[in-house]
Amino acid sequence: MALTDIEIAQSALVLLGSKPIASFSAQGNAADVLRTLYEPTVEAALTSGAWHWAKTTVALTRDATPPTNLRWDAAYIMPVSPPVLMVKTVTVDDTVIQFDRHENRIHCDAGEDDNVYMEYIWRVAEADWPPDFTEYIVFRLASVIAVPITGKPEILDAMQRQADQLFLKAGHNTAVGRTTQPIKIRLGRRSSGRPNYRG
Fold this sequence. Notes:
Blueprint: H1 5-15, H2 29-46, E1 55-59, E2 61-62, E3 74-77, E4 84-92, E5 95-97, E6 99-102, E7 105-108, E8 116-122, H3 131-150, H4 153-176
Antiparallel strand pairs: 1-8, 2-3, 3-7, 4-5, 4-8, 6-7
């Protein structure tokens, strides 16, 4: 059964020999630490591996207002929900194009008649995580909060070693569980000498 965010936090505390908290809004040091570090830890984990289940592709809507940055011809509106953690690629007709991410907009040189798509990593809800990724997050979170909670760096090292092993396991299971997709993307469209930005 999938764990909730507070159940994941509670599991990390139990690994450290600490009393579980009832909620993130509870009083005390453990709740303060988890309120601060839980979400950054999850977002860092989602963007640090090749989790195909955390990636999706959407068609972008062109913004009627052009970008104020004159380096780019057009702005496109990024999806708001679920939150975009990292933009992987922006494409037109299966061709990767250069872009900049500016707040909730993608700036690029696409034409008005182009169909622009963005592949990105999104904030996947805990209920949709694979079990091995959830296990990795529990140990990763335990390593992150180990020193603030216990004051013992040696516990951090032990939790980190276990988290590293679980990261490799989860990554392997993700790779073997994925159906091979044909590669259609062509590189090099509209080269302007600017680097391809990954946001």
